[in-house]
Structures are given as structure tokens and as C-alpha cells.
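Good morning C.,

I know you're traveling, so I'll keep this short. The sequence:
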Amino acid sequence: MSIITSGTTVKDPSALLGRGKMQELIESLKKNFDFVLVDAPALLSGPDSAILASMVDEVIIVLDAGRTTVEDGNRAKQILNMANAKILGTVMNNYYSDFDPYYTRCGSYANVQ
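The C-alpha cells, ready to paste straight into the viewer:
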């Protein structure tokens, strides 16, 4: 296992992602490793994650049971569709059994349009 950290903060990370170097890096890593996982910022917080989603083979959406709304889930899926990202599935963090009255309709998350 190898890890590449993000490095220093830059003023316009989207510009760096759009220059082709990130795509070259991902392609190089795919040739040398069985799996390449890229952790990205929250999709709704800016364009970086959508840009990255267009460069990778598949995307996993991570939802926060205490904060993510169905509307936000739908918006995230729309953004990923516009980026031509292939969605592998979802993960729901911070789910507790006392959420049951609200999350018994988890079908709302499973059926994000």
C-alpha cells in the first residue's frame, strides 16, 4: 500500500486538476496498482470532486445520516451524472439506531433520482 498526500494548499485547486497532470497521475497509478482510491472534498462544496469524478473509473457517494438531506443526495447524483461519473454505490456515515423513525424511509436514499 502506498499513500500520496495532498500537499500544500493552493488558491485554485480546480485549475490544477484541469491541466491534465492529475489525469496523467491517475493513469500512471492505475498501471502500477490493483486499486487506486482518491479521497475528495464534499461534492457540493465546490467543483474539485466533480472534476476528479470524471477522471476515475467509479465513485462512491458518502452521505452523513445526521446532515445529508434527500435533496442534497439528489443534487450530488445530478452533478456526478453531468461529470459522466459511474456511481458504484453509497456509504452512510453516522447512522445510529435512534434515527430509525426518520431513516425507516431509507428507500429515499437508496432511490436517489
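Safe travels,
E.
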